[in-house]
# Entry
Amino acid sequence: MATSPKTEPADRAHMRAALALAARGLGNVWPNPAVGCVLVRNDRVIARGWTQPGGRPHAETEALTRAGDAARSATAYVSLEPCAHHGKTPPCAQALIDAGIGRAVVAMEDPDPRVDGGGIDRLRQAGISVEVGLCREEAAHVNEGFLLRIREQRPLVTLKLASSLDGRIATHTGDSRWITGPEARARGHLLRAQNDAILVGSGTALTDDPDLTCRLPGMENRSPVRVVVDSRLRLPSSSKLAASAARVPTWLVTLPNADGETRKALEDRGIEIIDAPPGTDGRIDFAAALRELAGRGITRLLVEGGGGVAASLFRADLVDRLVWFRAPMVIGGDGKPGIEAFGVADLAAARRFERTGQELIGQDLLETYGRRA
# Structure
């Protein structure tokens, strides 16, 4: 049901505020969706709420708690359908009913089988006017990872590259620090905070011995789950990732028959080992690996390297978004490519994207792309 022309501008502004609130939770609320809620009464915003760390309390509960009795007869703008099922918290749809709201504007339905229209039906059965679909595309973009986990049993995959103008991430000797400047690196850390998990291959883990944490001041607690794809269990138990696994959740995806002694040594360090079946090439099947991550609640996955992992994901057509930092330098054809060969023989087989943004970050160019529909 569309909003009336008279109220649409105000409705749209309030819904976009709810979507901005929802985005605050990205990377910090999995396995739940990131939701925002704005309560308005007599043309005045009386309360706001968004999904809290760990996925609860939910946005509606937060807003209603702040509003108190002022929520009666208010309009609730919610970026995703209020839940209708009993989980660790009561249904948000019922909380809105109990608070006595008079109207609800919902950006989109929640495809979770436990909800899937049930929240909207419950509101309407209680006599509350419900309008659905305002800013639907924007709401779907914010929660694309959650929607993919529900519909396709995999997370949203964002590939982040930091390369020279000619697409190289290191020289032929392996020198790569630093191709991009400090401003671009800081933006990369913000990306980590906005994703549930960050993934690298064993080659990157061995060569760089990275921390893979968010080190922005004040956001150190927003580090994502760290995931290493390592079919042969080559990650040393002395690595930074293993040494800090008891403090920062660290998962390692490997083949079921990987070395048992090494497996135990890594598990003793606090690393969770995840078995994934091999693909036709004998290496880890990335589609199966992503299903394993989704099954553990991951909705947004940031991939940082290296070129072999990127090629494997493109080969399986699993890259949804590209975040590409380009430094104003040229390394040459003997440098290491950001994306290795993945078997494209003709242009019809190329993976195609649409540019969604472009921004100058210090001296580096940041380009963002989304999968072409």
